[in-house]
Amino acid sequence: MASESSTPLASAPGEVVTRFAPSPTGFLHIGGARTALFNWLYARHHGGRTLLRIEDTDAKRSTQVAIDAIIEGLDWLGLDYDAPPVFQSDRAERHAEVAWQLLKAGHAYKCFATPEELEAMRNDQRMNKQPLRYDGRWRDRDPSEAPEGAPFTIRLKTPTEGDVTIHDQVQGAVTVRNEEIDDYIILRADGTPTYMLAVVVDDHDMGVTHVIRGDDHLNNAFRQLPINRAMNAIESNWPDPVYAHIPLIHGSDGAKLSKRHGALGVEAYRDEFGILPEALFNYLLRLGWGHGDREEITRDEAVELFDLAGVGKSPSRFDMKKLENLNGHYLREAEDARLAALVAARIGETADEDLLARAMPVLKVRAKNLNEVVEGATFLFAKRPLAMTEKAAALLEGDAPAILRKIHDHLAAQNDWTSEALEATTKALAEEQGLGLGKLAQPMRAALTGTTTSPGIFDVLVLLGRDEALARLDAQAA
Questions:
Q1: Which one of 104, 256, 259, 427 is the catalytic residue?
Q2: What is the pLDDT of residues 280-309, one digit of tens each?
Q3: Mean of the per-residue pLDDT values of the chain
Q4: Fold for domain 382-478?
Q5: Three-state DSSP state, 228
Q6: Helices (H), 348-465
Q7: Residue 259 among the catalytic residues
Q8: Ligand-binding site membership of 259 (annotated)
Q9: What pTM, to 2 d.p., does this model score?
């Protein structure tokens, strides 16, 4: 994904254009990833474009590390964009230009109220139990009344009567009285734009037609629309965007999503939890959107099926167990060579990718994440003498060494080192000794892997190879 900043051309008539606009003050968390996904899917479903804007105007909190992590996380999920990312901080002059346009046209005004005056105003409102809103004290005053050279902000002259209804594609019709929206600042005294102004200008200049975001931004829509409509009155080419405010994600207990629930960066699911990107893609898709009872939906199917009508109005609940179960499905579907490379990277220098690829059909069968595959593959690269778990060591006590000696000698005489032939030989020995197969398989597993859990014991013998398997059995035999 490109990293240079640019402003895409406005959308063609009838074209759908969405945008994902994260603030780079942290990693790409799970809620942001879902918002990005819904924007991407909606645009792809309608044959439109989806754009990325990095809202990095908070210079103190925005970091390059976070920008890189966001872009890397989007790439990992397979969310590509139709133009290089736009960096909001590069567009401050354009934002200020619009503020001055609004001022010149009478849709905004200079406010010379000092910080001390504004704080006194808020204190009075608190004492009188009134809403904390700017009281419009400079709305109709002549700027000449201010001391010469006094600093000022530019405030939007918002409508004071009537109401505004947004026909939100998820929330339905939402109405707010205009008197509830005060004349807020669009350009600070130092000449820098506020968030409200920057968002509206960028959405217009990028040709965004559909604003799909979390419902914590629903109130912002009622503050951003007046800027849009004031500019439309000036230039007549600032149509209202279509809004779709998605309910937030909650934890499995219904509480606000936190780190203990899984409110982590996408990279944590990849690196710490061993989740595949297609599994997280599918899980986030189903987190607040549905298509009948279907759980497993491919990327291509998602593009074909997704629309905003399927987004629910209630908060969805994040469930790590469901994610892992879905991930298990995608592990079983994934190509063995791809999984072998991912697992080898986790194991390190001792890993043999070719061996892992051969072992993958039996390693991935019950695994729910890559960490479990790694754990299951550890025996392949263990060095003798094997480290034993406490339970494995217990299986090697008593008459186990004598049993292992017989197993070793029978297998050593076996020329056909296939799972079928090895199983037949071991079963024949079990019958000869009057023992159940488990009585032989349990100490065999401990001797061969150092644990009590592994793929099928005959698969283990084949994967280790004749020489190594016999050497491990010999090391524990009497």
A1: 259
A2: 999 999 999 988 888 899 999 999 999 999
A3: 93
A4: Arc Repressor Mutant, subunit A (1.10.10)
A5: helix
A6: 353-363, 370-377, 390-395, 400-412, 419-433, 437-449, 457-464
A7: yes
A8: yes
A9: 0.91
